[in-house]
Amino acid sequence: MNRNDSGFGSLPSYAPLAAAYVPMQENAADRYEASEALSRGTLFPGLDLPFMNVVNDTLPATPMTEMMAIDFVADELELYLDTHSDDLEAFAMYQTFLALRQEARERYSRACGPVTQQDMLGAERYTWLGNPWPWEYRTGREA
Question: Is the pTM of this model over 0.70?
Answer without folding.
Answer: no
